[in-house]
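Tutorial handout. Part one gives the primary structure; part two gives the three-dimensional structure as tokens.
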Amino acid sequence: MREISAWLSVEDGQYWITDSDPDAEFVLPGPGGASGLVGIVPGLAIVITGTQFGNVALTVQSGDSDPGLDTGGWDEVVEVSLVSGAAGQGLGILSGGQGPCELATLTPAGAGSYRIRVHVRGRDAGTADDVVTGEPAEEHLLQIWPAPPDPEIIRKTTDEHGAGFRAGAETSSGPDPRSPHGRHVMLEVSQPVTATSRANAVLERIYVRSGGCEFEFRIVVDVSGMTPQQEKRARRAVDGYRGATLPESTDPGRLRVVLHFSDGRTAEFAADTDRLPRSGPAVSSNAFSNYPKGSTQVAEESFWSWPLPPAEPFTLTLDWPAVGIPPASITIDGATIVAAAGALPPLDS
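Part two.
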């Protein structure tokens, strides 16, 4: 990859990655976006620095493919997609309306879609110094390569400066990402997850929304051959009664889902949605129903996961100790989910 290093003089605690498209409508993204590091609109990304005025050490790597992820040694790592307009002059770095000439036209002019991985360390030190006239207190690395548009991925967040921006975003107006909102596209799946001597679990469908997706499961538990007392307790276990289990199980743990992405991130299940981060990734129970059907008890439960997954295969793991279902995994095609989300109208349409 082509690599350029320079000191960038920032103003007002930010710098811009822009295609300088003269035909683009001038719209600013929310400060720091969901990550507290970078906000995006078509043709423009604004990166938030801890240093308010003065020097930031910046290295830019640009090439034809992803150079590979390495979060070691960095405080914050975030990936975003940036789309350049037809009249764009190529992505470049600006601060206060200007920037070093070697940081201009980092990509070819004209329409294009790019992935940008932003790495930062030392923002808290830059915040403490406020104005840096000599050696930079913070360091940034940008990796840029052509790639189709994909959802933002927050790889790592550890500094206090970003936490402040994220807290501000969480109190802003708009729908809470921790709950389903907006229109959806339904994907029929009917994919078996696991089968035990007593239970069968199937992923019936996925409801895709712009902010995430719902996974809907149907679990059928056989209660035949049990004593009346055992059957009553087993049906209650399927109904979600606390402490109730099948005779074969001593663990009253509830049904849960965990997602494992290829980039190493995990969307963990939690029953208390309010304690989960708005930025995710996370999973919570969304809806639950149950009913008897002959010698079986049926549970239908959906789980909400946010944000949208990367456009690549990921692993979904389901387990339900109370009804004797050990952890079982299936593979989901993230590209299909992202494509379905791309067909949705805007939330305000």
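Part three, for discussion. The radius of gyration is 24 Å. The chain has a mean pLDDT of 88.
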